[in-house]
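$ ./design --mode recover --in tokens.txt
reading tokens...
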């Protein structure tokens, strides 16, 4: 079946890649999972993604795990200094506070605190085990086996990397950008915060011509929901604002917008590796 999924991507890609949002499909995780029982359902989803349609998957990740994870990341940030490591053999898990002073070192400008995790480090937080349920299905949609890249290390080229990210109050943002479709066509995000409860304004935006499309408030995205979209679609995070009525307003290490990105990038051992780019 996987060969047919990849073959259909090659057929779709004879046309122009999607750039603007077209439509949002809301679906519960169990219903989404059941769509993988036959190839025709998978092909239909591929076609929709290539037309700029987004899937909002409800209840994709356990909320108790998410709350515990955020607390663990707060504790980690107090114990471990911000640092940077290239994705080469032996690369550890690490966290980095990306600010105005070092943001220009990256392909896309942003202000955020990112916690990076790699499979080979067997982290104690069981992040991969709790997220593989939805990630495995996304890999199938991408045209790979569900266990693709799980045993890879940087010398193998493509690796699995999880980014747990906090966008802080009055500073957290990422500029409009898109991802390279060369290896991974579909992007998977998990939402760890709820707009209105944890922050009042800002957050993810997609685009339709010159119009910004609000996603989190319009579709009432909840903690534990996932979003899948085609990599070339223009998107950004507007500056996050936390009001005094929002959760964790008085806890600067936890306040803001939390989010997870699940990626399978090329490691730094790959020459001319494919990366994101501003739009």
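writing sequence...
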């Amino acid at each position: 079946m996987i060969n047919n999924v990849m073959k259909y991507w090659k057929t779709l890609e004879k046309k122009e890649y999607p750039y603007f949002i077209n439509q949002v499909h809301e679906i519960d995780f169990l219903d989404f999972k059941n769509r993988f029982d036959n190839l025709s359902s998978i092909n239909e989803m591929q076609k929709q993604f290539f037309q700029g349609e987004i899937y909002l998957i409800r209840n994709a990740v356990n909320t108790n795990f998410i709350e515990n994870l955020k607390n663990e990341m707060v504790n980690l940030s107090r114990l471990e200094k911000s640092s940077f490591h290239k994705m080469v053999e032996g690369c550890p898990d690490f966290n980095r506070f990306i600010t105005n002073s070092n943001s220009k070192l990256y392909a896309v400008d942003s202000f955020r605190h990112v916690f990076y995790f790699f499979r080979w480090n067997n982290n104690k937080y069981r992040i991969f085990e709790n997220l593989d349920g939805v990630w495995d299905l996304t890999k199938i949609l991408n045209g790979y086996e569900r266990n693709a890249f799980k045993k890879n290390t940087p010398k193998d080229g493509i690796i699995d990397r999880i980014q747990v990210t906090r966008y802080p109050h009055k500073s957290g943002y990422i500029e409009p950008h898109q991802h390279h479709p060369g290896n991974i066509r579909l992007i998977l995000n998990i939402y760890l915060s709820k707009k209105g409860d944890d922050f009042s304004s800002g957050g993810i935006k997609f685009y339709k011509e010159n119009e910004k499309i609000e996603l989190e408030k319009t579709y009432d995205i909840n903690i534990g929901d996932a979003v899948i979209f085609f990599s070339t679609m223009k998107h950004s995070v507007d500056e996050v604002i936390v009001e005094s009525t929002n959760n964790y307003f008085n806890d600067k290490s936890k306040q803001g917008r939390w989010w997870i990105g699940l990626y399978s990038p090329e490691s730094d051992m790959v020459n001319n590796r494919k990366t994101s780019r501003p739009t």
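exit 0
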